[in-house]
């Protein structure tokens, strides 16, 4: 469509011998907001990735690695830094290295969305090391060697970016984190075949990959805008008992697991690998304080000690068996009480 030509404006009348004057200032329209900026939100409910078996293909998708750690939102404000967990708990004091680096961004204000991880000697994120750096489940230690792998930017210098498409947010994030290699780093975007990327991730013992739709805004919850494809399944289950070890005195031999089901619990199998002798003894001491005569689930074995479902564990597994239990499970570590909402729920 051809646009109508603009009407020419009158030329400026300037008298060289007079000082320049400004025009008459109009009164502000009271219906117009005084501030053209968006206030920083106290908290943004995170966008969650939906689990799928195969990665999507197409130019509308962006791909990166899936990080094995704690989801965090880092609020960098003029008054200081706040680090919030996925469920909104303030853990600023638990991540001093990330907080210190975040202060270097001032006077800019922003909200970084990312995952706190601890790398092992091979440069691979290790959830157990992250837990240990925090003092274990219920520990109060600050994690001084954790790194925030930032993968989204939700707010920047007075502007709410959540309504902006991911591709544009990604460009801004790359500008903000250019050359950052300290306690806050950019989660790299990969421009290659997603099947090959997944294969490489699995070969290097990584958790998997994430696919994000470039044209979607930031929407809270598991909408399908973000997809996760795992090399090995990993979920959180409640511990409802244990089987004593016959080889190590004062230790557990295996943990009994349960998933949420309707208004209660359903047995999900047992896990007997993934913990060392010292950890197996510590777990027994913790669980002995939670013994109960009213078990949350019924289990096939009688040589077990039943406990209340007060502890939750992160478990890796290959699949579900036809009997509804985990296939080849492995213990990764205890989850914090704040992560209780993440316990796996079985479909009705």
Automatic annotation (TrEMBL):
GO annotation, biological process: DNA recombination; DNA repair
Entries under CDD domains matching the protein: Adenylation_DNA_ligase_LigD_LigC, OBF_DNA_ligase_LigD
E.C. numbers: 6.5.1.1
Keywords: Ligase
Entry annotated with the keyword Ligase: yes
Family of this protein: Belongs to the ATP-dependent DNA ligase family.
Protein name per its UniProtKB record: DNA ligase (ATP)
């Amino acid at each position: 469509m051809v646009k109508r030509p603009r009407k020419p404006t009158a030329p400026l009348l300037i008298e060289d011998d007079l000082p320049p004057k400004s025009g008459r200032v109009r009164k502000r329209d009271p219906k117009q907001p005084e501030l053209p900026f968006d206030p920083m939100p106290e908290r943004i409910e995170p966008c969650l990735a939906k689990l799928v078996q195969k990665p999507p293909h197409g130019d509308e998708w962006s791909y990166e690695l899936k990080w094995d750690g704690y989801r965090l939102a880092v609020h960098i404000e003029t008054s200081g830094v706040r680090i919030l967990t996925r469920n909104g708990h303030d853990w600023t004091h638990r991540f001093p290295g990330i907080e210190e680096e975040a202060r270097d961004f001032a006077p800019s204000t922003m909200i970084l969305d990312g995952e706190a991880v601890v790398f092992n000697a091979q440069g691979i994120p290790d959830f157990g090391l992250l837990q240990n750096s925090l003092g274990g489940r219920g520990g109060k230690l600050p994690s001084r060697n954790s790194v925030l792998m930032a993968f989204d930017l939700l707010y920047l210098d007075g502007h709410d970016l959540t309504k902006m498409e991911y591709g544009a947010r990604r460009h801004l994030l790359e500008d903000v984190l250019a050359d950052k290699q300290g306690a806050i780093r950019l989660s790299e975007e990969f421009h290659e075949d997603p099947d090959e990327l997944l294969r490489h991730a699995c070969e290097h013992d990584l958790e998997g990959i994430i696919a994000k739709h470039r044209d979607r805004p930031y929407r809270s919850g598991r909408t399908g805008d973000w997809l996760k494809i795992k090399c090995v399944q990993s979920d959180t289950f409640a511990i409802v008992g244990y089987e004593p070890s016959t080889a190590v005195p004062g230790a557990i031999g295996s943990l009994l697991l349960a998933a949420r089901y309707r208004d209660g619990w359903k047995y999900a199998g047992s896990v007997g690998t993934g913990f060392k002798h010292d950890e197996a003894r510590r777990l027994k001491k913790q669980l002995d304080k939670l013994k109960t005569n009213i078990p949350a689930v019924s289990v096939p074995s009688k040589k077990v000690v039943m406990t209340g479902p007060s502890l939750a564990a992160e478990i890796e597994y290959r699949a579900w068996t036809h009997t509804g239990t985990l296939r080849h499970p492995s213990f990764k570590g205890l989850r914090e009480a704040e992560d209780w909402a993440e316990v796996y729920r079985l479909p009705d």
